C-alpha cells in the first residue's frame, strides 16, 4: 500500500510552491511563541507531523504549532493571514490520502492539545467536546452513561474528533447509524482571516431552523475552510447485543437479494453488511494462513452484523434471516456465530483483507462508491483488462454502503499496469455514476482526479464558498478546492 | 393561531419595498410565456399562491410562474437576474412562518409541475425524485418496495419534497430516523444568476468524499440560495409493527428519567417520545371533550411509540419498559395500547392539542428547542410572568427532540400580554441555550428575531455564503439572510 501511495504522490511533485506565500521568518516564530508558549512552537523533532502514517506523503514545514485553545488558534491564524503564511491544520494525522500533510513549506497547526472540554447530557444524548479529543477516549467517556460514538474506525486509538468531522469519517457503523451528517449539530471554528474570526455555528439542538446549517459544510472540507476547535453532536445508546453471521453466495445478483432480505428481516438492528469475493478468501488463506469460516468455498462471502438491545430478539431475527436466505436459495451456505470467538474469526477475515493483499505483493488500492448494479462489474472489467499483468484482483468492501475496495496486486511496481489501471478505473467509476473517493477523501492522493464527474459550475461554486471562509487562500493550499 | 400569526406579521409591514428591484412589465410576461407556455404564467386566480395557508401572510405578486423542468427554471432565473426581478420559490406552500410568500411584489415561482421523475433502487434504498412531488405520494410509491420516507408531517398530503428540503422539515419520526441531514445525498438546483446556473450537487451514494457537501447547505435555506428541482436521498424500510403506550409522571425530572429508560429499553425501536402537561389534558377535555386515557390525572403525560420489524419483540420490549417505569417509581401510571383503536385514542390526544388551544381562545403559539433541564422551566417562568393576563398556559411537544410547543391562550388579543411575552420569551430561550425556531423556520414570522443568539460573525458568514449562490440578491428577498 505504502508504495502505491508514494507512486501516486510522485505525480504531484510538479505542483510548484506558490511564491506569493510568505516564508516563515524568525520574527514569525517569536510571534507564535508569544501566542502558544515556546514549548509549543516546534521546529525540530517534527517527523510525526510532517509525514503521514503511510510514509508516502512528506512536507517540509518550518514549524509545528500546538495551540491549547480556540483563542490561540485565532491569534495564530490572524497573524498568518496578515503575513500570508500558508497553514495545514492537523488532528490525529491518520488519513490515507495526505490531506493533513503540507505539500511544500506550509506550517502545521495541530489541534491535539485542544482536548480538555467534555460535556455530555445523558437525557438528550448530546455531546460537546474539544476537537483534539481522541475517538476511543470519547467512546470510553461515554460508556458509563450507556452511550457510544455513532461511528468507529480502525484508527480510533489515535484519530481525533476534529479530524473525523473535517474528513466526514465513515467507518463500520454507517449502515446502522448513518453518516456524521446524521449526528453533527454544531461546531466552533476559527477562520483564517486577518481577524482570526471565531465562529460558533449550529447549536446543541436536534432541531434548530434559525439559520443556514453551516456546520455541515465542514464535513468533508478536509481542513480547507477553517480550523475546527470544538464539536457538538449526538451520541447513540450502546447496543447490549452484537451478533454476527456469514453467508456463502453464488452470484453477485444474489448478494443484492441477500442485502434486501437483511434489510427486511434485520431492519432496525442491521449494522454491517460486508463483502469478500473468492479471490479475497484465497489471498487470506495463502498470504496470511487464515482459513475460511465457510467450508463450501463460495464465490462470494457476506458478513452480516446486528447491533441491538435484546440478545434473544436479535438472535431470533438473525436465525430467521439465515433460514430464509438458505431456503429461498439466495445463499448456498450460512453460519451464525455462537460465541464471541466465532464472531471474531469471521471479523478477522474481513479486517485482515487489507493486510493479506499487502502481503501478496505490490498493491494498487482503491476506495470507490458505485451503484450496486455496477459494484462487481468494475472488478470484472478490471479483470478483463489487467489480469495478464496482475498477480491477483481482489475485492472486499462495505456492500451495504455501496463502497468497494478493489485491490490489484502485482509482483512489483509496473508502469504498464499502472497505466492500464489509471485513469481508466476512475473514468469507468465516473461513467457508471460512482464516486472515486467513498470515504478516504481527496487529499493529495486523488488531487489529479478531483474534478472527475464534477461540472465546472460545481467546481466554481465550491471555490467561491472556499473564498468566503478563507479569503486569503492560506488554509491547506494546493488541495482540492 | 391564525390571529397570532397575523399579529406578528403586522410587525413586518414597516419593511419597505426595495426600489432597486425591477417591476414586472408586459415584456417580462411575454418572456416568461415563451419559457413556460402561456397557460403557466398566471396573473389572475392566484390567491392560493400569494397567501399562505394560515392566511396570515399575503404578498402581491404580479404573476405566478409554473415551469415544468429544471431548464425552464434556469431560463426564468436568468431573465430575472438580468432584469433584477425578485423571486420567491414555492413548493407545497404549507409552511407556518410565511417563508414562501412574497412580502411585496416578488413573483412566485412554483415547482409543483416539476413532478415527473421518480427512480428508486430497492437494494440500496436510494430515491431520486423531482422537487414538486408530494410527500404522501412518495410514501405511496415506496410502499410496494417495503420502504417509506424517513419523515412524516401533518401536511404530507400537500407538502412537496423540494420544500421539505428547503425548510429542513422535522416531523414526527425524527427521534427514530434522524433529521433530513441523515438522508439527503444530492440535489439539482438552479441558482439565480444571469446564466441561470444549473448545479448538480452531491451524488447518489451513502459515501462520497470528493467535494464540499454542498447539498446540506440547502437544508433550512428557506429558498434563499437556489431553486431545488430534484432531490436524491435515502428512504427507510417500512416498520412491520408500530406500538404505543401512555405514562403518567409526577415531576418533570421523572419525565427525563423515563426518557432515559425509554432509550435504554426501546433503543433501536423508539420512534416518538411526546409530552403533554396537565393543562394540555384539561384543555383537550374542556375545549374538545376529549377525555384522558389515563384516569389518574397525572401532572405530565408521556406518549411513547415504537416502530420495529417484529411485533412480538417490540411488544415484549414495551412491556418491560413500562414495568420498569412503574416499579422504579419513575411513572405513576402506564397503559400499553392493545389495539389500533387504543393507540389512535392516545395519538388523538397529542395531535388534537393544537386544535384544543385554538378552540380555547386567542392563542400565542411557540416552537422552541431547549436543553431538557430548561424545557419546562420556560413554562413555569411564563406562568409566573403572565398568568394574571392569560386564560391558560399549556405545553405539549416532542420531548424526545427537546422541542417545546408552549401555548398561551387569552380571551382575546391583548397588547399587554403580547408585550409581557415578547421579546422576553425569545430572549429567555436564547439566554438558556435554546433555539427560537425548532422546526418551523424563520420565514416572515420570526424575522425580527432572526439574529437572536447569532454572533455578528455568524450573520456575516451566512450573508456572504448567500451572496455566492445569489449574487444579485433576488431570491426570496427581505428574509433572514
Automatic annotation (TrEMBL), chains A, B:
- Role this protein plays: Catalyzes the oxidation of D-2-hydroxyglutarate (D-2-HG) to alpha-ketoglutarate. Also catalyzes the oxidation of other D-2-hydroxyacids, such as D-malate (D-MAL) and D-lactate (D-LAC). Exhibits high activities towards D-2-HG and D-MAL but a very weak activity towards D-LAC.
Gene Ontology molecular function terms on file: (R)-2-hydroxyglutarate dehydrogenase activity; FAD binding
InterPro entries assigned to the protein according to its UniProt record, in alphabetical order: FAD-bd_oxidored_4_C, FAD-bd_PCMH, FAD-bd_PCMH-like_sf, FAD-bd_PCMH_sub1, FAD-bd_PCMH_sub2, FAD-linked_Oxase-like_C, FAD-oxidored/transferase_4, Oxid_FAD_bind_N
In which domain of life is the source organism classified?
Answer: Eukaryota
- Name the chemical reaction catalysed here: (R)-malate + A = oxaloacetate + AH2
Q: Which family does it belong to?
A: Belongs to the FAD-binding oxidoreductase/transferase type 4 family.
Q: What is this protein called?
A: D-2-hydroxyglutarate dehydrogenase, mitochondrial
Q: Which cofactor does it need?
A: FAD
- Give an example GO cellular component term for this record: mitochondrion
Question: So what EC number does this one have?
Answer: 1.1.99.39
Which terms are listed as keywords in the entry? FAD, Flavoprotein, Oxidoreductase
Signal peptide start and end residues: none
Domain called FAD-binding PCMH-type: residue spans: 57-238
Q: Which PROSITE patterns match?
A: FAD_PCMH (PS51387)
Amino acid at each position: 500500500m505504502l508504495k502505491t501511495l508514494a507512486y501516486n504522490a510522485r505525480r504531484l511533485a510538479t505542483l510548484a510552491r506558490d511564491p506569493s506565500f510568505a516564508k516563515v521568518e524568525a520574527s514569525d516564530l517569536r510571534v507564535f511563541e508569544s501566542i502558544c508558549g515556546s514549548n509549543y512552537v516546534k521546529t525540530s523533532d517534527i517527523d510525526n507531523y510532517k509525514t503521514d502514517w503511510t510514509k508516502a506523503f512528506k512536507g517540509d514545514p518550518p514549524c509545528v504549532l500546538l495551540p491549547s485553545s480556540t483563542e490561540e488558534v485565532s491569534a495564530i491564524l490572524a497573524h498568518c493571514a496578515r503575513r500570508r503564511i500558508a497553514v495545514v491544520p492537523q488532528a490525529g494525522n491518520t488519513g490515507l490520502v495526505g490531506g493533513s500533510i503540507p505539500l511544500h513549506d506550509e506550517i502545521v497547526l495541530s489541534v491535539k492539545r485542544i482536548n480538555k472540554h467534555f460535556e455530555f447530557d445523558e437525557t438528550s444524548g448530546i455531546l460537546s467536546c474539544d476537537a483534539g479529543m481522541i475517538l476511543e477516549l470519547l467512546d470510553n467517556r461515554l460508556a458509563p452513561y450507556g452511550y457510544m460514538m455513532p461511528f468507529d474506525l480502525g484508527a480510533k486509538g489515535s484519530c481525533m474528533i476534529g479530524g473525523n468531522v473535517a474528513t466526514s469519517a465513515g467507518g463500520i457503523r454507517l449502515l446502522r447509524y448513518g453518516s456524521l451528517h446524521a449526528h453533527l449539530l454544531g461546531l466552533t471554528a476559527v477562520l483564517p482571516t486577518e481577524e482570526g474570526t471565531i465562529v460558533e455555528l449550529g447549536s446543541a439542538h436536534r432541531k434548530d431552523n434559525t439559520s443556514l446549517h453551516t456546520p455541515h459544510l465542514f464535513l468533508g472540507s478536509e481542513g480547507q475552510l477553517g480550523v475546527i476547535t470544538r464539536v457538538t453532536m449526538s451520541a447513540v445508546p450502546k447496543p447490549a447485543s452484537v451478533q454476527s453471521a456469514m453467508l456463502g453466495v453464488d452470484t453477485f445478483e444474489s448478494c443484492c437479494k441477500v442485502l434486501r432480505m437483511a434489510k427486511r428481516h434485520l431492519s432496525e438492528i442491521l449494522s454491517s453488511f460486508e463483502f469478500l469475493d473468492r479471490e479475497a478468501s484465497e489471498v487470506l488463506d495463502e498470504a496470511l494462513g487464515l482459513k475460511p469460516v465457510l467450508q463450501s468455498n463460495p464465490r462470494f462471502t457476506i458478513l452480516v452484523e446486528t447491533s441491538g438491545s435484546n440478545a434473544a430478539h436479535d438472535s431470533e431475527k438473525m436465525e430467521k434471516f439465515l433460514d430464509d436466505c438458505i431456503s429461498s436459495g439466495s445463499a448456498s451456505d450460512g453460519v451464525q456465530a455462537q460465541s464471541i470467538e466465532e464472531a471474531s474469526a469471521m471479523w478477522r477475515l474481513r479486517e485482515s483483507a487489507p493486510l493479506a493483499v499487502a502481503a501478496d505483493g505490490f498493491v494498487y488500492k482503491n476506495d470507490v462508491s458505485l451503484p450496486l448494479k455496477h459494484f462487481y462489474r468494475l472488478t470484472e472489467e478490471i479483470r478483463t483488462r489487467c489480469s495478464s499483468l496482475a498477480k491477483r484482483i481482489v475485492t472486499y468492501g462495505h456492500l451495504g454502503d455501496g463502497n468497494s475496495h478493489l485491490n490489484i496486486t502485482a509482483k512489483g511496481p509496473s508502469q504498464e499496469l499502472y497505466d492500464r489501471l489509471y485513469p481508466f478505473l476512475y473514468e469507468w467509476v465516473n461513467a457508471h455514476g460512482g464516486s472515486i473517493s467513498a470515504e478516504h477523501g481527496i487529499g493529495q492522493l486523488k488531487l489529479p482526479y478531483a474534478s472527475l464527474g464534477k461540472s465546472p459550475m460545481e467546481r466554481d461554486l465550491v471555490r467561491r464558498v472556499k473564498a468566503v471562509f478563507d479569503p486569503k487562500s492560506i488554509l491547506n493550499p494546493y488541495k482540492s478546492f
